[in-house]
Amino acid sequence: MEYRTLGNTGLQISAVSFGAAPLGNMFGAVEEKAALTTVRTAVECGVNFFDTSPYYGNGLSEERLGKALQRRRHEVLIGTKAGRYGDDHFDYTPNRIRRSLEASLRRLHTDYVDIFQLHDIEFVELDDVFGDSYQELGKLRDEGKCRFIGMTGYPMRTLRRAVTETELDTVLSYARYTLLNTQLATELLPACQRRGTAAINAAAHSLGLLTATGTKFQNHPASSDIKAAASRAARYCWGKGADIGFLASQFSIQHSQCPTTVVGTATTEHLQNAIRAVTTPIDEELLAGVLAQTADVRRQPWISGLPENNEYKTR
Question: How far apart are CA 43 and CA 38, in angstroms?
Answer without folding.
Answer: 9
